[in-house]
Amino acid sequence: MAMNLKNNQSGVAHIALIALVLVIAVVGFAGWRVWDNSDKSNSNSSAGRQSEASQATTDNTIDSTKNYVEIPQWGVEFEVPSTVLDLKVDSFNDYPADENHVASSTAYLNSPKLEAEGIVKTTGTQERREKLGNITRQESNSDYYPGTTIEKYAGDNKFAGKKIGDYYYVYITTDASENTDTYLNAIKTSIENSLKSTD
Fold it and tell me: 169 burial class (0-12, 13-18, 19+ CB within 10 angstroms)?
């Protein structure tokens, strides 16, 4: 009988050991699940915060930093259209007064990207300068041609025009390049809406 009791006690010890291993496994599994869910939750909310921060930065950059084409010779600038983000003044000329014209200045516009893509053509002297048109500045109410003020010339040709201070600015589109109407219209709209003094 003493042997039977000893065997029974051994059996109980094995059952107790198995139960203890099961309890540890269940507690360990439960702990792992809590930790895993917590890690995923932190990861998701961290990613969410990063996404929100990234969006805010993007929004702030778009809202607070606008790109402008500046023409420092005149002290004016206008917002870069979204369709021609690399728009720039390619060249600049001052024209003295003669018997038919008052003194004026012209800033020639270009997009290196559109030129590289072959959209802006550069054949011929005038076309080479006028890739995406030009902005001409002269005194307000002065004749662009004899008997035609710069304001009337702009209006008759449906060009963008704007008076700033004593000067009138007119964006003259070009026929030098083909398939550029979308870009020319975007530039025209931008000049009409955002041309302003930098002073």
Answer: buried
Do residues 43 and 118 share a domain? no
CA dihedral 28, 32, 34, 38 (to 10 degrees): 160
**Domain total in the chain:** 2
Count of all residues that appear for the chain in the document: 199
Are the beta carbons of 67 and 84 closer than 8 angstroms? Answer: no
Query: Which residue's structure tokens are 């094995």?
Result: 14
pLDDT tens digits along 133-189: 899 999 999 888 888 899 999 999 999 999 999 999 999 887 766 667 889 899 999
pTM confidence score: 0.62
- For residue 92, the cross-strand partners are 107
Q: Closest Cα to residue 149, out of 130, 131, 129, 168?
A: 168
Q: Are 91 and 176 in a shared domain? A: yes
Of 97, 106, 108, 84, nearest to 142 by C-alpha is 97
Tokens of 155: 């209006």
